[in-house]
């Protein structure tokens, strides 16, 4: 079975409003959106394997410093992503998935393990979450509320 892999790991503050997130940029994205800022994530099989043990070690390392675990992709390996989401939730952290897919295209088993979900392919002309014309949506799955407004500078 294919392993879930990542090409970058960072602590980030802007991707999930009001959360300090440990973000993993998962490799293997097949969408290939024109203008993607993470083309290094396209190559399937590249990067470091993200095991449950590695994730648990990172969560221990950042304990008290992060409030969220963010996966930039990985939905194409739902079984693997599901086990990682459960580990984060067991540690009392909120979870988020950034995907270019729509919510209806995701494996439904992922949704109960997610707190936040960013959906929609990158379309340069429409912009990202900080654009009023974006096709992307950032939703708090606990409430169903679209939080796009938190990304737009006024």
From TrEMBL:
SUPFAM superfamilies: Radical SAM enzymes. Keywords: Iron, Iron-sulfur, Metal-binding, Oxidoreductase, S-adenosyl-L-methionine. GO terms for molecular function: [formate-C-acetyltransferase]-activating enzyme activity; iron-sulfur cluster binding; metal ion binding. Coiled coil: none annotated. Pfam families: Fer4_12 (PF13353). InterPro entries: Aldolase_TIM (IPR013785), Anaer_RNR_activator (IPR014191), rSAM (IPR007197), rSAM_sf (IPR058240). It is an enzyme of class 1 (oxidoreductase). Its EC number is 1.97.1.4. Its cofactor is [4Fe-4S] cluster. The keyword S-adenosyl-L-methionine applies. The keyword Cell membrane does not apply. NCBIfam families: RNR_activ_nrdG3. This is Anaerobic ribonucleoside-triphosphate reductase activating protein. It comes from Haemophilus paraphrohaemolyticus HK411.
């Amino acid at each position: 079975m294919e392993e879930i892999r990542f090409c970058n790991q960072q602590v980030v503050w802007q991707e999930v409003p009001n959360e300090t997130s440990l973000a993993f940029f998962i490799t293997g994205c097949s969408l290939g959106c024109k203008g993607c800022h993470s083309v290094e994530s396209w190559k399937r099989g590249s990067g470091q394997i993200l095991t449950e043990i590695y994730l648990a070690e990172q969560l221990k390392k950042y304990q008290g410093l992060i409030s969220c675990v963010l996966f930039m992709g990985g939905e194409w390996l739902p079984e693997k992503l599901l086990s990682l989401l459960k580990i984060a939730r067991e540690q009392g952290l909120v979870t988020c998935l950034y995907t270019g897919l729509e919510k209806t295209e995701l494996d439904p088993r992922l949704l109960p393990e997610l707190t936040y979900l960013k959906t929609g392919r990158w379309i340069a002309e429409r912009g990202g979450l900080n654009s009023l014309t974006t096709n992307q949506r950032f939703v708090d799955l606990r409430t169903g509320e679209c939080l796009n407004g938190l990304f737009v500078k006024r």
